[in-house]
Prior knowledge:
Elements: H1 4-29, H2 35-54, H3 60-69, H4 74-99, H5 113-136, H6 146-165, H7 171-180, H8 186-210
Amino acid sequence: MVDKVKLGKSLMELLGTAILVLTIQVSVTLGSAAAPCAIGAVLITIVFAGGPISGAHYNPAITLAIRLRGKVLTHELAVYWVSQVLGGILGAVLGGVIAGNFSNIGVGEGFSLSQAILAEIVFTFILCFVVLGVATSSKSDGNDYYGLAIGLVVLSGAYTVGPISGGAFNPGVALGLCIAKGFDNFSYVISVVIANLIGGALASGCFYLTAPDQFEGYTSVV
């Protein structure tokens, strides 16, 4: 028998990631100077929309960070990852059709691969750390600002290091755009995916150091 709750969560992750990547594809392909604002704004809205359903990760790096933090089970992580990557591909293809062309991430002109990868690690770390703090901490339960905080990190990252690395901060975004464009620049995209996952893992580790009482199974000695 199909578990409708689990199916709903998976579908929400697929749809949310698709909406995010569609917005990225269209706004970037058309060369909009306000693309980071459009991306940040749509992320804010879909995080609020999907938060009560799936947690609104829309990002394999975020799901990894939350798994390491103890709030997601291993089998749930696998299901979320599949949904997020499929959503990224769907959004990238649909966005490319709407825009009439396809974009992809890449190292910015005048920058090195190491600079781009470091930028992806750092801003994925910031994004995941913020998510852990505003959306998973018992001390911030029921807050009304978590979607805004998450969207603003992506907006800031897109403006700050987008010209350096392409500003993915999300394996679902990187893979979706790459696959929709015929596996263009695949080796760089794989490097970005790894960098994003590293950033997510580092965020979880840092969150443990700053708030160890928030981890599942933690027992206070005080």
